[in-house]
Amino acid sequence: MNGGFWHMGGYALYVWSAYGVTAVVLAAELLQLVARRRAALERLRQTRRVDVDRETKR
Amino acid sequence: MTSESTSWTRYAAPAAFYPLAGRLIPWFAVPAAVLTVVGLYMALWAVPSDFRQGDAYRIMYIHVPAAWMSMWLYVVMAVYAALGLVVRTRLSSMMAQAIAPTGALFTFLALWTGSFWGRPMWGTWWVWDARLTSELVLLFLYLGVIALMAAIDDPRRADRAGGVLALVGVINVPIIYFSVKWWNTLHQGASIRMGAAPTMGKSMLWAILVMTLAFWMYSFVTSFVRVRAIILERERHAEWAQRLVDNRS
Known about the structure:
The structure holds 2 protein chains of 2 kinds.
Chain A lengths: L3 H4 L4 H46 L1
Chain B lengths: L2 H8 L3 H33 L13 H27 L3 H33 L7 H22 L3 H15 L2 H11 L19 H33 L4 H10 L1
């Protein structure tokens, strides 16, 4: 590989833009999903506190 | 009710599917990671460059799998949407909702990679031909389903509205698939067809199949993670869900 791999036979811009954006988009989706799960659990915890308060006041 | 039908319907309840999906995720995540590494090695190293297109054709190994997944995920989403409308299982609608964003991303990637392949090969980033236009319509359908479901506060009404749009839009999938046959397009015809010998080399075919499988396994992971989040968001007042956070704290 005499520098040819990253060069992609002169098509480096096109090949790496396609692969690079794919990698970024999929990685971003995974990160977003981790954040969404955390937020859902946090909201569940808050809901739990509110619901328990309501029960004890009754 | 027979025991068979009870065991099947048992998992149609969000409370039962939540832990099941959680246990299934690693069984798709590990293959997804392994197949991605193998697929990238094949697509970028192992497969020789094309005698006419040089290395630019390597874009095909993500373009074709992304395009296939964009159509396949739409069909799966529409089937879940139909189940949600007809059988009225809440989980089906949640699955449809969970698949939509991943489907939209693969549609975007099919268009993006196609554009970066079209520029060096056709000399243009975009043309309004049947294949490209119908794939763009697919992206708008996905975004429409996502936006419609997000815009309606009542989950049941949101499920129904999103489900109807998803179902109506499924007509676009065969239009995309057959567009290269029905119309004169700049886009090339299918290289791999059911019941016909593929018009490409064996190693190229394997690289495409491995990348497709990698994207498919990835889609299972994202759909299951997302549907679990949706279940928690919607069932947060349910006792079983609240017990989850009691155990964790």
